[in-house]
Task: structure prediction
Amino acid sequence: MTLAVWNALFLREAVARLSSARGAWVLIVLEPVLHACFMLLLYTVLRTRSVAGADVAVWLVLGLTGYFTVQNIFQRAMGAVGANKALFAYRQVRPIDTVIVRAGLEALLGTVILIVLLAILAFFGRSVIPDAPMETMLSFIGLMLCALGIGLILSVVGDLVPEAGNLANFLFRPLYFLSGAIFPLAAIPVKYRDWVFLNPFAHGLELLRSSFFPVYHAAPEANFKYLFGFSVVSIFIGLALQIRFARKLRAQ
Result:
């Protein structure tokens, strides 16, 4: 029953996401592409061909696509409950189903976009084969799970207290820089890195990049233990909130 509900919700969300406006699917792909092109142009002007030992083009695509994927996951998940209130009239559909399906759709779109962009870079002669494929998969999965955990929490908090959702969007804006999407975190002075690496996405992006480039000088603070530890704790809290406030989420 649950899988049937998820399948129906997934198809509904996919159609809505990709046809919300004319050329919506093009805009989804263009966002990371335009950011990557702009930053690549900037690095070219600075005569930089590599970043911390990594090919700058592949490095930027990994960071920007990874960041925009997790951002889309927790932001879209945060609004899932409010956007699907009408569906809760059906007993089979629970608020948590809409959050999980939205997160899954964004994760799939992010994966497809990353593969497409890497294929384009490969066409232009860039090396896009990861040095440690298993670590690449674990890094990307860890990023998605952390975003899901945050999305589950915010979907409850943002629906019960709308102002909290707006506050969360405001607080998450600096993550673009604090996650190291456009600059290497190893460049941050050591005394400040402990604060930066409280952000799980910083761990995920550093680990993703280091899995591609054997010579990449990643910040030593990045580790899988924190990445997956944060994901487990945040998903547990999110599930607990979903269960505790399930009736209120349906009723509001």
User: Anything to note?
Assistant: The chain has one domain: 2-251.
